[in-house]
Specification:
By secondary structure, the chain is an all-alpha fold. It contains six helices and no strands.
Length: about 140
């Protein structure tokens, strides 16, 4: 497995898992333990990081929303925003461009028509905040 393909698949796995737990409200650890098919290591890292840092991630995303709140976002949009924000904050080895393009790609695949553009704008603002040296 190469890092690029592996991360892409892992992001999809994490998105699906986090969407499901967002809907059910089931605890992350219990849901991970109940899985019969193991997730990619990077997916688990994303899931655990987002679970641990959810309040901070929501605050960062919320600061970068204009006239909107994170709770008003569609669930999939919110999960993608958290994932990208976590990567921007916690994984400096992952290039900003890769994080943003993967988030937009996920939004294009799984969200409404307006979501890719909306998330791109929000996440560019997040990236400017978290990685100003790359802005």
């Amino acid at each position: 497995m190469n890092a690029f393909g592996g991360r892409r698949e892992a992001r999809e796995e994490a998105l699906s898992f986090l969407y499901e737990t967002e809907l059910t409200g089931d605890p992350i650890d219990e849901s991970l333990a109940a899985r019969t098919i193991p997730l990619e290591d990077y997916a688990v890292e994303l899931i655990r990081g987002i679970d641990t840092d959810r309040d901070d991630l929501d605050e960062i995303v919320g600061r970068n929303l204009k006239g909107w709140t994170i709770r008003r976002m569609a669930i999939v949009d919110r999960v993608i925003a958290r994932m990208a924000t976590w990567e921007l904050r916690s994984r400096p080895d992952v290039p900003t461009g890769a994080v943003l393009s993967e988030a937009v790609e996920l939004a294009t695949q799984y969200c409404g028509e307006e979501s890719p553009r909306f998330l791109n704008g929000v996440l560019r603002s997040v990236a400017n905040e978290l990685r100003p040296e790359e802005a």
